[in-house]
Write a structure and sequence with these properties.
single chain, about 100 residues, alpha+beta, Alpha-Beta Plaits, four-stranded antiparallel sheet, 3 helices
């Protein structure tokens, strides 16, 4: 894959309390990804960008959330997130963006 297309597949890491717990317990990292990306695309992008071995990829589609803005109905954007489990002994340093 071309490096620019890798950055289009993986948008950003998703950081929350749940992702911190999942990362500590089972060596998984969570990323916001392009809605059209497949598991194979995500695996190839993570392996190329961070130079690690991906063991498993799980994808979750997050639907648009209905909200009201100043009395008018609206919706937040729908998005897709990927749980990426790495091989044993591998890790990603998300602060520097390099392998740890």
């Amino acid at each position: 894959m071309i490096r620019e297309s890798l950055y289009q597949v993986i948008r950003r890491p998703h950081v929350s309390e749940k992702t911190a717990r999942v990362g500590a317990d089972s060596n998984q990292y969570v990323f916001e990804v392009e809605k059209s990306a497949s598991k194979t695309d995500i695996r190839q992008a993570i392996e190329a960008l961070f130079e690690v071995q991906v063991r498993d990829v799980t994808v979750v589609n997050i639907p648009a959330k209905r909200k009201t803005f100043r009395g008018r109905p609206g919706a937040r954007n729908a998005w897709k997130k990927a749980y990426v489990r790495l091989a044993d002994g591998q890790s990603i340093d998300l602060v520097d963006g390099e392998q740890a």
